[in-house]
Design a protein that fits this description.
Blueprint (H helix, E strand, L loop, with lengths): L2 H8 L6 H12 L10 H11 L5 H13 L6 H40 L4 H26 L6 H16 L4 H13 L4
Helix pairs in contact: 2-5, 4-5
């Protein structure tokens, strides 16, 4: 195999698959509270720093994956797909799932064994505010593009209020948002 062929197997298009894999590998360890908590850092690298996809593609990736049935981590595959097709989806998912899965298994076993120790209880208690902060940062990244559109900003605020104060299915809120977008109002 020639050197050019080897490079072609490891890199496709303008995206280095090892760089994409490494980025999601590191993000996996930050995914406290779920993969969606990594959205701000993912956005910073994939959109702002590397320019692999646009802000609109990033937001659409998350919206599409969150509307689909299945685990929240699906948005990682959609972002990876937007970056580098099917191979990008596979590389992104492998990078996101591999380390966090191994860490979760190890932490679960050790946590069960040493659950009564003060440092373990303190670590568990400290993860709650970290998770809330990461989720709020993710929400900000998703709402920030709406700041230029008052109707969309008002709709997002209303949806957040309805989701918080009622037991209405989020699918209804998604349907209303889709209708408003399809009508061209936001």
């Amino acid at each position: 195999m020639s050197a050019d062929t080897a490079v072609a197997l490891v890199q496709w298009g303008a995206v280095d698959p090892w760089q994409l894999f490494g980025h999601f590998l590191v993000l996996s360890l930050l995914a406290i509270g779920g993969a969606i908590a990594t959205a701000p850092e993912m956005h910073r690298v994939v959109v702002d720093q590397q320019g692999w996809i646009t802000d609109t593609e990033f937001s659409a990736s998350i919206a599409l994956a969150q509307a689909a049935p299945g685990p929240n981590v699906l948005f990682v595959a959609v972002v990876g797909y937007h970056v580098a097709g099917l191979a990008g989806a596979g590389v992104a998912m492998a990078g996101m799932l591999l380390p966090s899965t191994l860490l979760a298994v190890a932490a679960g076993r050790l946590g069960a064994r040493y659950a009564q120790l003060r440092p373990v209880r303190a670590a568990v208690a400290g993860l709650a505010p970290l998770t809330v902060g990461l989720i709020l940062a993710s929400g900000w990244i998703l709402v920030e593009p709406l700041a230029r559109n008052p109707v969309a900003l008002l709709l997002a605020g209303a949806a957040a209020l309805v989701a918080w104060r009622t037991r209405l299915s989020p699918l209804w809120l998604i349907a209303v948002g889709a209708g408003v977008g399809a009508a061209g109002w936001a």
